[in-house]
Amino acid sequence: MHRLATSFILGYHGCDAKVAKRLIEGEPFRKSENDYDWLGPGIYFWEANPKRALSFAREVRGRDPAKVRTPAVVGAVIELGLCLDLASEAGIKQAKAAHAALLELYRKAGTPFPSNQGGPDELLRKLDCAVISQLHKIREQAGQEPIDTVRGIFIEGKPIYPNAGFRAKTHCQVCVCNPLRIKGVFRVSKSELT
Prior knowledge:
- The chain is of the alpha+beta class.
- The protein has one domain.
- Helix content is about 30%, strand content about 25%.
- The radius of gyration is 17 Å and the shape is globular.
- The mean pLDDT is about 95.
């Protein structure tokens, strides 16, 4: 947990064109609260990656055409605030502690522990979501300041060339837990998406 990163980032949210229009007109973002959300409950953005946000919206259209008819992207200025950065030692340490606490709760309850699912890229992150949610609960119960944002780097997709350590869909994702950290919303120019 820290406030060491650059205060503001540009995030990009892939969605349907009608949703993008409403967001630009001032409608608030809706939090995602699925039990498989990679970084726990919140509003999801691709950091500095509008093209990946558009690809995501297209992927959703392919899976569920009723959800995204016309893929679009909206940009946002996000103040990270108190950030659980899973690319930092402090963030990793806190996530590991939350995992241990969650494991103990499930052990005592005698219930099956959640797991990540969905093939090699593990697109359904039930375990990761439960761990981040547990971390939020631990902080709340301890009377600590709530987390504003969660940031994670995800290695996803096929290698970009033979024996590559780089993958085609690797990205940095930011989950905004505190909507007040979204300082502005903007239309993304077509030149940024081609």
